[in-house]
Write a structure and sequence with these properties.
- The protein is 42% helix and 16% strand.
- α3 packs antiparallel against α4, α3 packs antiparallel against α6 and α4 runs antiparallel to α7.
- It is elongated, with a radius of gyration of 31 Å.
């Protein structure tokens, strides 16, 4: 006697005994299909596999040596098989008009899922664990039970959950082998072969129903709705070979490998917005085209600070072949969402997020993000001003610093008129003076003045700046080393020093790169002796910590919280090294913060972060190929892939030493003539 598919599917879906879920008639026909108008709230379940309100924690990998915990893991997998059976039965009932080959194939898959359940269940019983020892989670059901058509089902079940099973099978097979459980490992290996076949069948129907003009990856990604995402289509161990064997294209497999989407944790949204000071000074004006292009060329930089599940806004999604080496070297890849730089992306319009973390806050970026996540306050404006940085340095210098630190006579003057600039020049203690516009950055909007009358071009520059902002006039110092100090200010005002390192700029103050290893490494011995002489708990470290606390408190008093950077420098004065603890304060992310983040994946004491030409970066990648798994042990790694003239690279090991010498990055220190006296 034959059983109709509809009758069997109803028993599989609504039955409340384990026997119902495992029913397998010898003959099944599909002559009288009937439609189920709507999915039930939940499938029927035996008491031993009843639904639980709270999610039962999956056993930790470190606990799998214990028989009971290993049995619990197997029953988690068994419950997933039950859910798959029920969802497949639901699909058969909801869509009786689906093609007959699809329905027959789905029925055969149900029978194999029943076999999988029995294998997991039997092995768990041998290990002393029963269904009642594991809570049943309804996540799969909640994701797929509202399917609108068979394509919905194929995308969610085959292309997502069953694809991820490839990774789960090989991952847990290896873990079970590691603890000596060959029987459980053999089960995972056998089921793995079935999952490849299930995925192959799903790919066939996925391609049958999708738009043929759209790539597999785009069609898959575009059809998913949270909480389902592409991240659910893979596990901890990524199985390339199994996916290829199932029929996925190499391009799809590579794209999925570097795709990241949060699986539950609310993401932070990161965005590289480097022209903060320009927008603060001129809120109604666009920054220069060169600055706008920089924002596009470098929008991948926040990838260094991304945590699992975060979102990075970019002008164009990077290619998977560019991202793969970054992932292999230990960087956590965020989800990439394209935006035009002016409007909040439609893709995130209904997405719940933890926070928005731009490079820095200003009225323009604050007006772009959702109101709930806006952080700009008018009190922040003064914090971005070089006038405020100068005030902080003056207050510190007036407290009587050590003799080897900058004294009050080297503190800059805030000038609001041409006459004040001329007066500051006459009082300057050095042959040259530098004028900095109040909101200039990275060496831009600065000029140098020598003694003597002002030129017409200098007067014109000064008058242009004074129309909208003041100017800070400082002595031009014979700098030998730039230092970058990073701090954080919490919402409750706690201040923490995150780290400090040395960096390099061009002659006109534009940023070049950071040294990521020990700050003393590869410096001349005489200079290291000076640093040791003024270092320690009563010297350089003490001054840096004092300045961090002073600056952090002032930031907090103005309502600011988050990351900030302080640029410092060491210069020569009267033949002696002199420490200037505040050159400028940046209440935002800085390249120094990116350097600290980059340092976390470097597995070599010689490492640097540097801007070079794209052509040079390609040459360096060939000369020093990146090596390392989970960290960069040696070689060169590109961090940006923009079309501009330069890109950021990480160079580690021999590559770092080579660039340090080739670019003469520490030449100002090595060429300095100085007295070791302090």
């Amino acid at each position: 006697m034959s059983t109709e598919i509809t009758q069997l599917a109803e028993q599989l879906l609504f039955g409340d005994r384990l026997e119902d879920k495992l029913c397998r008639p010898s003959k099944v026909t599909d002559c009288h299909p009937e439609r189920l108008s709507a999915a039930p709230a939940l499938p029927g379940r035996p008491n031993s596999a009843a639904w639980t309100k709270s999610k039962s924690p999956f056993p930790k990998e470190s606990a799998l040596g214990d028989d009971f915990e290993r049995g619990r893991a197997l029953l988690f997998f068994a419950n997933h098989e039950l859910l798959a059976i029920e969802l497949m039965a639901l699909c058969l009932l909801r869509f009786p008009d689906a093609p007959s080959p699809f329905r027959k194939g789905l029925l055969n898959t149900i029978f194999e899922e029943q076999d999988h359940f029995l294998r997991y269940y039997s092995r768990a019983s041998e290990l002393g664990v029963g269904l009642e020892d594991v809570g049943v989670n309804r996540f799969f059901w909640d994701c797929l039970s509202d399917m609108n058509d068979p394509f919905d089902f194929v995308v969610g079940m085959a292309m997502t959950f069953e694809q991820a099973n490839l990774d789960h099978c090989i991952h847990y097979k290896a873990l079970f082998e590691r603890v000596g459980d060959s029987k459980s490992a053999e089960i995972m290996a056998s089921i793995y072969a079935d999952e490849i076949r299930h995925l192959r069948q799903g790919i066939r129907w996925f391609r049958h129903w999708k738009d043929p003009s759209v790539t597999d990856f785009t069609a898959h990604e575009g059809h998913l709705k949270l909480p389902l995402s592409m991240a659910r289509a893979k596990g901890r161990t990524y199985d390339v070979n199994g996916r290829i064997a199932a029929g996925l294209t190499p391009d799809y497999v590579e794209q999925l490998q570097v795709t990241s989407v949060s699986k539950g944790r609310l993401p932070n949204v990161l965005v590289f917005w480097p022209n903060v000071e320009t927008y603060i000074a001129h809120p109604s004006q666009q920054p220069p085209m060169k600055a706008l292009n920089l924002a596009k060329e470098c929008d991948l930089l926040p990838i260094l600070q991304a945590r699992h599940g975060d979102i990075l806004l970019v002008h164009k999604k990077p290619a998977s072949h560019f991202l793969k080496p970054l992932q292999q070297c230990g960087l956590t890849l965020p989800q990439f969402v394209e935006w035009d730089g002016t409007h909040w992306p439609d893709q995130l319009s209904e997405r719940r997020i933890q926070s928005v973390q731009p490079w820095g806050w200003c009225p323009v970026i604050s007006g772009t993000v959702p109101r709930k996540h806006r952080r700009w306050q008018e009190s922040y404006r003064v914090l971005h001003s070089k006038k405020w940085s100068t005030k902080m340095l003056k207050e510190w210098a007036d407290d009587g610093p050590p003799s080897w630190c900058s004294q009050p006579d080297l503190v800059g003057k805030v000038c609001c008129s041409l006459e004040e600039i001329i007066q500051a020049r006459s009082q300057c203690q050095t042959d040259w003076m530098v004028l900095k516009s109040e909101f200039g950055t990275a060496g831009r909007q600065t000029i140098r003045l020598s003694k003597g009358p002002l030129s017409v071009s200098h007067r014109n520059w000064i008058n242009r700046q004074l129309r909208t902002q003041c100017i800070v006039a400082e002595p031009w110092l014979n700098r030998v080393m730039d230092l970058s100090v990073q701090l954080s200010v919490s919402k409750n005002g706690n201040i923490a020093l995150l780290g400090w390192n040395r960096f390099w700029t061009t002659a006109n103050g534009q940023y070049r790169g950071h040294w990521l290893g020990s700050i003393h490494r590869h410096l001349p011995e005489r200079f290291r002796r000076w640093m040791y002489k003024v270092g320690g708990s009563k010297g350089l470290n003490l001054i840096i910590n004092q300045v961090v606390q002073r600056v952090g408190k002032s930031l907090a008093d103005n309502g600011y919280f988050g990351t900030a950077g302080i640029d410092m420098l060491i210069h020569l004065r009267n033949g002696k090294f002199t420490f200037r603890p505040i050159v400028e304060v940046n209440p935002r992310y800085t390249m120094g913060q990116m350097a600290i983040e980059a340092q976390k994946i470097c597995r070599n004491p010689d490492a640097l972060f540097l801007w070079v030409s794209h052509q040079d970066a390609e040459v360096l990648e060939r000369k020093f190929p990146a090596t390392g798994s989970g960290g960069l042990e040696s070689g060169t790694l590109k961090l940006t892939n923009g079309r501009g003239p330069h890109c950021a690279i990480l160079a580690v090991g021999d590559a770092a030493v080579y660039l340090l010498e080739r670019e003469k990055l520490d030449a100002s220190i090595k060429d300095a003539s100085f007295d070791l006296g302090v």
